[in-house]
Every structure is written in C-alpha cells, then in structure tokens.
Amino acid sequence: MPTIESQLNVRIMRKAEATMHPFTDHFKGFENVGAVRQIFGEETEEVLRNLKVEFSGRNGYMGVSDDDGHLMVSACYLNNGDIVDIYLDIVHELVHVKQFMDGKELFDRDYDYAERPTEIEAYRHVVEEARRLGLDDDRIREYLRTEWMSDEDLTLLAKIVGVKCKRVKEKANHR
Ligand SMILES: [Zn+2]
What we know:
Layout lengths: L19 E3 H4 L7 H7 L3 H7 L1 E5 L5 E3 L6 E4 H6 L2 H19 L15 H16 L4 H8 L6 H10 L7 H6 L2
Parallel strand pairs: 2-4
Antiparallel strand pairs: 1-2, 3-4
Helix pairs in contact: 2-5, 5-6
The chain binds zinc ion (ZN).
C-alpha cells in the first residue's frame, strides 16, 4: 500500500530560514538609554550588538523567542505604530531578553499574562521609563492596553505596576 506521503504530487522545499537582522540596524542609540543600561549593565553594548531581530508580516506588536532569545517584531507595527509605544515596547522586550539570558521561563503558563512574574518585571521597568519621559497615568494605562487583555486584566496589571486607574464611570460623566 502506498503511503499517504507518496501520494502527494508536490514538492515542498523545506530549507526556509527566518530572516534575521541585526537589532542595531533598526534600533539605534538604545545602548545609551539609562533604562537599557540598567538591564544589561556593562554588557549593554555587547548584548545589543549580538541581538537579532526578526520581522513578521503578521499583526501584533513584538515579543522575544523562547528558543533563542531573539526579538520578533511585527513589520506593520514598526512601520505604523506610535513611536513612543514602540520605544517603550523595545525597553519592555529587552527585559525579556535579559530574563532569557538568565534562564528564566518567559511564558510560564502557571500564571495569567497580567500576573506572570516575567511580565510584571518588564512592565514595572517600562512604567518607570514612561514616567521619566513625562507620560501621565492615563497615557501609560493606554499604553498598557492590548486587544487580548480584558478590562479586568488591564485594571489588575495597572494596579500591580502602580498606575492609577480612572474609573469607567468617571470617564462616561465627562463626555
Ligand atoms: Zn512582555
């Protein structure tokens, strides 16, 4: 009996490689950012020099691969997203790069997103940087908002990282 595989009358070339670019080709000057130096210390230049970034055609924002710690960025987001959000996301993701280097589990499924220790560490760091830039709590809360997070999760995360929440009612009254 022929195998199912042998009945496929096609050829699939399986030598695909994800296209990787040096981080420093697209993100310049991050080695001089205090919030980044706080993450990597003396190793900052070396880590950023060796960091690779992969652009995807998919929607979304960015993330760090838990296979090899490289940065993954949605090309659409990089090209069209808010520049302050992108800057803050990079700072956030660099915390994950460091966590990966330290052998931490990035996607610990024992925790929900808003309560995962690796996320909280990254968000705390980025909120501090957002404040240094002069963003107020409303703007930071907007930054924290993503489609996949429920309002409850957003409120929880905001509370954990010390960002004040405007009550929905108050907002409605001021319209
Ligand atoms: Zn994260």
